[in-house]
Every structure is written in C-alpha cells, then in structure tokens.
Design goal:
Strand content: under 5%
GO molecular function: peroxidase activity
Number of helices: 9
CATH architecture of the largest domain: Up-down Bundle
Largest sheet: none
Order of helices and strands: HHHHHHHHH
Pfam family, one: CMD
CATH class of the largest domain: Mainly Alpha
Keywords: Oxidoreductase, Peroxidase
Protein name: Peroxidase-related enzyme
Shape: globular
Low-confidence stretches: none
Distance between the termini: 26 Å
Structural class: mainly alpha
Helix content: 55-70%
C-alpha cells in the first residue's frame, strides 16, 4: 500500500505543474512517482533539473545500465521496472544486457567499467580503492566522466530512496528479482 499519494493534476502545486506537464507530454502518461514527487516543487524541480543535465552525460546505454545497477543495489523495485522498460525501449538494450546491468556488468568493455565503478561507488558509499579508479580511467573515462558517473549514482539513489520510502504502485511492467535470474 502506498505511503503517499500520487496527486491528481488539479492537486499539483503550481510550481510543479510545468515540470510535471513536460514529463507527461514526453512520456505519454504521468507515472505515479512523478505525480507523488510533485508534492514538493523544490525537490521535484531540483531532481528534474539534475535529470535534464545528466541526460547529456555519457551515452544512453551507459546511463540506463548505471540506473539498473544502482537500483538493484538499493533494492528499488519501482525504479527497476522503469529502468528495465527504458533500457529496452529507449536504449535498445537486449534482455541479457539488462540482466547484466542489474548485476553490475555490461558486455561492452567500456560500459562494463562504468557500471562496475558505479556499483562500487554505491556499495562502498564512495570509499572506492585506487584500483577501482584506475580501472575506469584505463578504458578511457576522464575525471569529468567519472564525476558524471558519480552524479548519476546520486541521482538514481535519490529516486530509489524516494520510491523505497513511499512504496508507490508500479506503473511499468514488473521485473523478476535479480536473485531469481
């Protein structure tokens, strides 16, 4: 049972409406997470601005793979449904690549290094080893790219925590728990 309410459009604070409308127009419907997050224009608009900025970081396959890995570590079933859907339909990742990403890997060596690094950042709360940093640099990521990976980890963690706290009804197809894959 949800711990907060996904607002109806007429209930959304005025300061959240333009952002929510843009998402609804882009996606084709209003996901429960966004309709609930819109209750706080400050938090919702800050997250949306971060999402918009980070949509220019790296490539879509790497971003979605990082989202899957982080959501798996954080145990966010809502975000796993969203990222699995977007990874398949927007990033065009095949099913086996989605499973690999959830396990913290990728078939492409460069993307694999980024996903492994992101997973280590979330698992260690940023207390990575020098060898972890070297591994991601060795495949061609600059320090600016590494900062983008860290920012993606933080952004995905924000929505993971939001959804874990409020336990909203999922509006994307369910996914199999990683332990059963």
């Amino acid at each position: 049972m949800p711990r907060t309410t996904a607002l109806k459009l007429e209930q959304v604070p005025a300061a959240s409406k333009p952002t929510l409308h843009a998402f609804t127009k882009n996606i084709g419907f209003t996901p429960n997470m966004m309709a609930a997050f819109a209750q706080s224009p400050i938090a919702f608009n800050a997250w949306a601005a971060l999402l918009d900025s980070l949509s220019k970081a790296l490539d879509v396959k790497t971003r979605d793979s990082i989202g899957l890995a982080v959501s798996e570590v954080n145990g966010c079933n809502y975000c796993l449904t969203v990222h699995s859907f977007t990874a398949q339909h927007m990033a065009k990742l095949p099913a086996d690549e989605i499973i690999l990403a959830r396990k913290g890997h990728a078939a492409d060596p460069k993307r694999d290094a980024a996903v492994q690094f992101a997973r280590k950042v979330i698992e260690t709360r940023g207390h990575i080893r020098d060898t972890d940093l070297k591994a991601v640099r060795d495949v061609g990521y600059s320090d600016a790219n590494i900062m983008e990976i860290i920012a993606l980890v933080a952004m995905y963690s924000l929505t993971n925590f939001f959804n874990n706290v409020f336990d909203l009804d999922k509006d994307f197809p369910a996914v199999t728990p990683a332990g059963a894959i």
